[in-house]
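Changelog-linked ticket: magnesium ion example.
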Amino acid sequence: DTVINRIAAGEVVERPASAVKELVENALDAGATRIEVTVSHGGKTLIRVTDDGCGIPGPDLPLALSRHATSKIDGSDLLDIRSFGFRGEALPSLGAVGRLTITSRTPGAEAHAISCTGGALGPVKPAALTSGTVVELRELFYATPARLKFLRSDRAETQAITEVVKRLAMAEPFVGFTLRDETSGEPRVTFRADAQSGDLFDALAGRLATVLGRDFAENAVRLDAEREGVHLTGYAALPTYSRGSSVAQFLFVNGRPVQDKVLIGALRGAYADYLSRDRYPAAVLFLDVDPQRVDVNVHPAKSEVRFREPGVARGLIVTGIRHALADAGH
Ligand code: ADP
Ligand code: MG
């Protein structure tokens, strides 16, 4: 059973950045307005995610660490998914491949903590915490040396973690994010995005300036289009702000970061008249659609989606961006 759990865990947690993604998504699902991530050695020795969300009641801590236990779905309709999590796999997987400690406090109750090491669950103990949740993961993959060997350098893993945090920060402009590196013993802030306010476009523009630079934010056109019940919002950069790689492409479906061939192809298609093959448009695209019309449950770790009618989303992106660029005189 432990072996099966570890194999399953490896599916969800491929590298430190996937652990960070799961933990930050949990914090967002908990309604956090401030999320702090601290890592050491590219997340290999330490990942700590602190949030000011709703917390987990002490008696529920063992449940949060048991496989397929989730508080986010009632079992009646698997497709109606609006929160990030819904499989109840992340925490048990992390507890199977590292030394995991969760400390949490719900309003009006005392704080409690639980630890899980290599899949072995400890008792719930009283703890000290003012509010929210702290999840600490040490020595990731210590129990699976084969997996440990496949990790890349601290620098490369840190880079992947930074990308994950930036992507989620882009998705949630009203939430404040801080990323720290504690490898040297002294925490050092490596990325900070203060919580934005105002309407969604103001907030997005502010967050864009933080994540991609003021230059991009000031040279992007606003997207706001709809087709057959699919909504497109966001910003697309003028062709002159293209990049040599896809690092400045942020795609979200119902608020969830996705990497999807159809959508990425549509983005490229929108700029086909402006850019050569080796240039990548910079854009932040939010597609919102009735969850019944899109399947986000394709793979637990790879953020793929499957639209019931892919042509609608594709057409919306191509024409939405072309019209916005044309309106801006391009
Ligand atoms: P899922 O997110 O798919 O529900 P997880 O294993 O990631 O599964 O988390 C299990 C459960 O633990 C969640 O459903 C939630 O109830 C609780 N939980 C996890 N992280 C947090 C957090 N940061 N704040 C509040 N509750 C949390
Ligand atoms: Mg989760």
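Closing comment: Example verified and attached. The CA atoms of residues 268 and 281 lie 7 Å apart. DSSP finds ten helices and 16 strands in the chain.
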